[in-house]
């Protein structure tokens, strides 16, 4: 259960059959650009601050999958990207909560903004997953 809460975005990107045909390559490209490994991403919650490179990975990733642009959340992006997997209530809750996060305009602060967005989106709970998706995507 905790795995889903901590890895909602990456779970979608890595394991679920979604509209993200390019998500695996985008994830790999963004890790290379940030100079990090998949283990660095997996370990991001082991300290209070995962570091600038991990935060910038999320900026690259969220920009490339169409969640953020120009240091802002794209309206309706959470629904477009994850709405087919999670309930309408989860979409509404995530958009109401996460869309309140604002960014400054500098490059460094855009990485912090992306990190805050990814943290917010990790608020998706297992109970938010549509019933057909739970059994199909959790096979051990």
From TrEMBL:
CDD domains: PBP_GOBP. Residues 1-23 form the signal peptide. The gene is Obp56i. It comes from Drosophila melanogaster. One of its GO terms (molecular function) is odorant binding. This is Odorant-binding protein 56i. It holds the Pfam family PBP_GOBP. Keywords: Signal.
């Amino acid at each position: 259960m905790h795995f889903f809460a901590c890895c909602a975005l990456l779970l979608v990107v890595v394991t679920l059959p979604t509209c993200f045909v390019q998500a695996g390559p985008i994830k790999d490209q963004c890790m290379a650009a940030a100079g990090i490994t998949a283990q660095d991403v997996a370990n991001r919650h082991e300290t209070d601050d995962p570091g600038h490179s991990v935060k910038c990975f999320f900026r690259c990733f969220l920009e490339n999958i169409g969640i953020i642009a120009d240091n802002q959340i794209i309206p309706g992006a959470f629904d477009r990207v994850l709405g087919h997997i999670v309930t309408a209530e989860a979409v509404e809750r995530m958009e109401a909560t996460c869309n309140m996060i604002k960014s400054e305009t500098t490059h460094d602060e855009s990485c912090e903004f992306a990190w805050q967005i990814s943290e917010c989106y990790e608020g998706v709970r297992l109970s938010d997953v549509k019933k057909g998706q739970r059994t199909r995507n959790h096979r051990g």
